[in-house]
Specification:
Low-confidence stretches: 31-41, 43-48
Distance between the termini: 66 Å
Largest sheet: 5 strands, antiparallel
Radius of gyration: 33 Å
Strand content: 15-25%
Order of helices and strands: HHEEHHHHEEEHHEHHEEHEH
Structural class: alpha+beta
Number of domains: 2
Mean pLDDT: 82
Number of helices: 12
Helix content: 40-55%
CATH topology of the largest domain: Alpha-Beta Plaits
CATH class of the largest domain: Alpha Beta
Oligomer: single chain
Length: about 325
């Protein structure tokens, strides 16, 4: 058990003790029915007022709300006063954000064990229209037949913590995206290609499917950089990335491995699909060159390899074979 779990258990125990003390005073109030002294009344009122959390208790009869108690702190969290709840017993559920309402209803239905607190984080709509995140700790009191007699608990505004948590998630997603994406072309990078390709090979193994890897580089990129500048070379790389996206399927894995090297992993759907893919790629490159948008003409060399099923093949092995195939084609031209 980690420190967070221990802290959570400690908090739950303290809350349960606080709830028992609150119920003690409430029971005394109901039993004495006005016969107690003013000192006892003030003590109970002061206790409720000093508790920083928004305490609530909802009474039921035959499944319908017949009475509610809401501590003064409800105004700070929800914008509504205790008297607002008296006029509208269903106000609390009405203010639960519509995207969380069904989840909260199910949470309440799952409060089966008596005097056992459970928690849920959900959104509410504040009276001013703003959205707040709350931690709702609640417990249900049921009769022998299982019908709810009372639901009681407390709410804490956790909007600040939730916003920080969501901001951290966004930063993590951005970092994950950046670690898998080539900055210039916005294709997958070498690391992402290996990770995703290895998963795709496992799928191919299960389906007994053939997989192609195309390895390519941009011809004479150094010459373009030296003659026209690196902006011209970068423009060719970005143009090739655009062409690859238009040539291959969305399910194919397209990556810039680094420098002028690119790779594509594609599930082979027909015995001659590699020839079709190369023809389509060549046609798309030719169309781009005809437009004359770039200073230099785009030309690529491409090698192909197939996944060797049941031979302990690997992404590295496929890339090496495709690289050799590309090199041999260059020698023949």
């Amino acid at each position: 058990m980690n420190d967070n779990d221990k802290s959570r258990e400690t908090l739950i125990e303290e809350i349960a003790q606080l709830r028992r003390e609150l119920e003690f005073f409430q029971n005394r109030e109901n039993t004495l029915n006005g016969t107690r002294g003013n000192g006892d009344c003030e003590q109970c009122t002061n206790l409720i007022r000093e508790v920083p959390e928004y305490l609530y208790s909802i009474e039921f009869a035959q499944g319908k709300i017949v009475g509610t108690f809401h501590s003064p702190q409800c105004r700070e969290i929800t914008g509504y006063s205790p008297s607002d709840y008296t006029g509208n017993p269903n106000l609390w559920m009405d203010m639960v954000h519509e995207c969380d309402r069904e989840r909260v209803r199910q949470f309440l239905l799952d409060l089966r064990e008596p005097l056992y607190c459970k928690s849920i984080e959900h959104r509410i709509i504040h009276r001013d229209g703003s959205v707040r995140w709350v931690l709702n700790m609640s417990t249900a009191h049921r009769d022998a037949s299982g019908f709810t007699l009372r639901q009681s608990g407390f709410l804490i505004d956790v909007s600040g913590r939730r916003e920080e948590y969501e901001r951290s998630l966004r930063l993590l997603d951005d970092a994950r995206h950046n670690s898998f994406t080539d900055d210039l072309t916005q294709l997958y990078n070498r690391r992402a290609f290996r990770v995703l390709a290895e998963k795709q090979l496992l799928v191919a193994e299960r389906l007994n499917s053939s997989v192609l890897v195309l390895f390519m580089d941009v011809d004479k990129l150094k010459y373009v950089n030296d003659t026209y500048g690196h902006f011209a070379g970068d423009a060719l790389l970005v143009e090739l990335a655009t062409i690859l996206k238009a040539t291959f399927r969305e399910s194919d894995i397209i990556a810039r491995l680094g420098g002028d090297e690119f790779a594509v992993l594609s599930m082979e759907i027909a015995p001659d699909s590699s020839d079709q893919l190369l023809e389509r790629l060549s046609a798309n490159i030719e169309k781009t060159n005809e437009k004359g948008n770039n200073t230099a003409q785009l030309s690529v060399s491409v090698g192909v390899s197939r996944y060797k099923l049941n031979e302990s093949d690997s992404v590295t092995g496929m890339l090496e074979r495709a690289d050799r195939d590309m090199y041999m084609k260059k020698l023949r031209t």
